[in-house]
Amino acid sequence: MIFHTKTVLQAIPQSVTVVAATKYFNPMEMKELFETGITHFGENRVEALLEKQPQLVDLPITWHYIGTLQTKKAKKIINQIDYLHSLDNLSLALEIEKRRETVLPCFIQVNISDEPNKHGLNVDEVIPFIQSLHGFTKIKVIGLMGMAELTKDESIIHHEFQKLETLQQAIKDTLQLQITELSIGMSNDYLIALEHHASYLRLGSILFDKEVA
Question: What is the DSSP string of 110-127?
């Protein structure tokens, strides 16, 4: 099986981290992908991560959890991941603080599309939430994560990604915190995300365009 990653990667600056969203791919396919140079893998289900990790233990993979993490399931994986992209509530933060053995780099998930079916904090809730994490020793907020509306109207996507850039500056001005990273951009909108200074891209289908050799 051949993964067509070179064309995609050529359009992405080396300073940007590509996180392969591996929801629909098995460990054998993930090993093949690793050989193309992708070393950051993102899972969005606890059970899938726990199933795949032991089969890939021989590879120096950086593991990202990119889905919604229920507080009751956090203990199962919180020491198995290197990054969390979906911190958006205090109960999860408290569970991380209780169970995490080392400092966990976290992205605050923000509902930039204002869609009721999407998780994440509203924009105006983010600064108070970050303030509520003061004194937590196992959580390091490194950035913001958001998912734009699934639409062909690029002006909407630009507007929603701009919300995070504006929020990033507001956090700096209000809290004197440098929240430097932006986890934005998926297969359908990653080129727009790059225009808005994305530093982490969560790529799935476009990265896994595959054909049988």
Answer: E-TT--TTS-SB-GGGHH
Q: What average pLDDT does this structure show over 26-36? A: 91
Q: Which of 207, 204, 64 is nearest to 145 (CA)?
A: 64
User: In this structure, are residues 66 and 105 in contact, taking their beta carbons and an 8 Å threshold?
Assistant: no
Q: What are the residues facing 202 on neighbouring strands?
A: 19
SS3 label, residue 106: strand
Question: In a 10 Å sphere around its CB, with 0-12 CB exposed, 13-18 middle and 19+ buried, how is residue 203 labelled?
Answer: buried
Residues 85, 44: Cα–Cα separation, whole Å: 10
Residue pair 107/81 in contact by the 8 Å Cβ criterion: no
Rounded Cα gap, residues 147 and 120, in angstroms: 9
**Spatial contact of 85 and 96, defined as CB atoms under 8 Å apart:** no
Residue 211 has pLDDT above 60, yes or no: no
